[in-house]
Structures are given as structure tokens and as C-alpha cells.
Amino acid sequence: MDAVTRLHRQLVDYSNSLFQEGILDNQFGHLQQLQDESNPDFVAEVVNLYFKDSERLLNEITVALDQQNVDFTKVGGHVHQLKGSSSSIGAQRVNNVCTAFRSFCEERNIEGCQQYLQHLKQEYYLVKNKLQTLFQLQQQLLSAGGSIPAYEMSYSILPLIYLTLLQNDHNALPH
Amino acid sequence: MMIGAEGASSSKKARISENPVSKNRPYFALVVDDDPMIRRIHSMILKSVGFKVEVAENGKEAVDLFRTGAKFHIVFIDMEMPVMDGIEATKAMRAMKVESKIVGVTSRNSETEREVFMQAGLDLCYTKPLTMAKIVPLLEELQKN
């Protein structure tokens, strides 16, 4: 087995494991499908924005929970923001922890919030580490002369788009 | 009638995706969110099905775009943003007689909160993440009108 084939197999297996373990969901696959020649770094770009914003939010949550009088509305707002960006990038486990964390904010439960902050950090750093490894494997494959395999979903959205166009706007389709 | 970014004094010009929709009937969308990552993702999804896209970082920027004469077929707006949130911005746009379809995009699951957002003048409210599957029916609806 040559280096390119081996790296390709390794990348596919690693990528699949992230979905199977529930670390990522189909939304991440949707983002991968949007990446093309005109936007070759789209996924890396949004992931880096996610890392930057998540670390700012985690820091703000940590500081807010360390206060004498905790502003649970503020903490909940930060968790809500993190939930929104996590769901948009497909970080499924981070998203799930945010949902549970928010209920502790609503209950004004300081112990629950502190416990879930640790859980949230754990899940966030896990997905960060996994995504960085994924990008490293992609770079290794490209450096070896291979190409990154397209993410294949259980269904393709493109036929749905073209079917919609066909049904509603015959003139919009190329003849 | 001025449509999209051309109608506003904005230097941002969204590229038109190589897509059958945009070649004959371009649709103009406005994405309003304070999170740059969300703006990037939503813009990319919309461009991939042929929309020309403009972005705003908060509700005030969105309202100001309409005030300067910009027009959009559809607006995707977040609920919680600094300066002016989605609820206030939607109310302001409807008060200005904006006829665009306004779609709320939020990670709030509470029916009460979503109802407040809807009552501000939304046509529809989606839970994040915004996906292609959620956008295609909206495109279908625009094509019917």
C-alpha cells in the first residue's frame, strides 16, 4: 500500500470515527460539501473563527462564575452563544452540553453551572483537538500528492435543489 | 427599484454562485448576525443555491441598509445581538413597510421566546443551524411569487 492510499484510508477512517462517536454531526458534513475550488479553505476558516470565539466565551463564563454574585443571565447568554455556533459547525457534543448547562443557569444553580463548565471545557477541547488532527491529516495527504475525499452523506442535497428548480422555474435551468 | 447591496452605499459585493438560479433570476438575501462565523456559514449556504448575499452585524445595520434604499427578497436574522436585537430590528423593518420575507434564526428552543420573535413580524422562525434543506423550500416559495 503506497503512502497516498494509506493516508487516504487513515483520513477516511478518522473522519468517520468523529461522526460515529457523535463528536461531529451532519452539519459539519454540510460545511465540507460547501467547500470548493473557489473557497478551498472555507471549513478551516469557519473552524478557526469557532475556536477563537469559543475560547473567548469560555473565558467569559469562567470569569462570570467566579464572581461573588453570579449574573446567571449573563452566563446563560454566553452559553447560548456557544450553543448557536457549536450547532452551526456541527460540534454535536458541545451543543448538547450547552443545552444542559443552560438549564442550570435558568435554575440559578451555581454548583451545576460550575460542574457543567468543566464538562463544557472538556468537550470543547476534545473537538478542537480532533479537528486539528483532521486538518493535519488532510495536509499530510495533500503534501503526499493526494486529494481530500469528498464527504459523502446518506443523501445528496443537490438533486433536491435541481428538482425544486425544475418544478418551479423551467426558464432557470440551462437548456 | 434598487435591489441588494447596489441599493446601499456598501462596498461589499457578493459574488454570484455559478448556479442556474442566479444566471436568470438573482435573489437577494441579507444575513444579520453578530457572530462572524455564523455570517460566513449562512452566506456560503445561500450563495451555493444562487442568492446574492449582503451581511449586517446587528439589527441597526440591517435597518440602516433598508433606510438607504437597499431591498432584499429575504432576510435571515438572529434574535440576540448587541446594539439592536432581532426583535427590535424586525419591528423597525415592518414599521418601515419592508415587504421582504423575514426569517428568524435562533438557538432558542423555548416556544414563548420564539413566539415573541414571531410576533415582531417574522414570516418564519428556524432553529440554528441553518441548512440547505431549510433554504430550498424558501427558494421554491420565492420562485412561485
UniProtKB/TrEMBL annotation, chain A:
Query: Where is the PTM Phosphohistidine found along the chain?
Result: H80
Where would one find the signal peptide in this protein? none
| Biological role | Functions as a two-component phosphorelay mediators between cytokinin sensor histidine kinases and response regulators (B-type ARRs). Plays an important role in propagating cytokinin signal transduction.
List, alphabetically, the PROSITE patterns matched: HPT
Some GO term, biological process aspect, for this entry: which one? phosphorelay signal transduction system
Q: Is the Cytoplasm keyword given for this protein?
A: yes
Recorded hits in Pfam families, A to Z, give: Hpt
Domain remarks in the entry? Answer: Histidine-containing phosphotransfer domain (HPt) contains an active histidine that mediates the phosphotransfer.
Gene Ontology cellular component annotations, sorted alphabetically: cytosol; nucleus
Q: Where is the HPt domain?
A: 39-134
Q: Which Gene3D superfamilies match?
A: HPT domain
SUPFAM superfamilies given for it? Histidine-containing phosphotransfer domain, HPT domain (SSF47226)
Swiss-Prot/TrEMBL keywords: Acetylation, Cytokinin signaling pathway, Cytoplasm, Nucleus, Phosphoprotein, Two-component regulatory system
**What protein name applies here?**
Histidine-containing phosphotransfer protein
Lineage, highest ranks first: Eukaryota, Viridiplantae, Streptophyta, Embryophyta, Tracheophyta
This entry's Gene Ontology molecular function terms read: histidine phosphotransfer kinase activity; protein histidine kinase binding
Q: Where in the cell does this protein reside?
A: Cytoplasm, Cytosol; Nucleus
From TrEMBL, chain B:
Q: Keywords of this protein's UniProt record, alphabetized?
A: Phosphoprotein
Residue intervals of the Response regulatory domain: 28-143
Q: Which GO terms describe its biological process?
A: phosphorelay signal transduction system
Pfam families, A to Z: Response_reg
Positions bearing 4-aspartylphosphate? D78
Note the superkingdom of the native organism.
Answer: Eukaryota
Q: Which PROSITE patterns match?
A: RESPONSE_REGULATORY
| Official protein name in the record | Response regulatory domain-containing protein
Q: What is the organism of origin for this protein?
A: Citrus unshiu
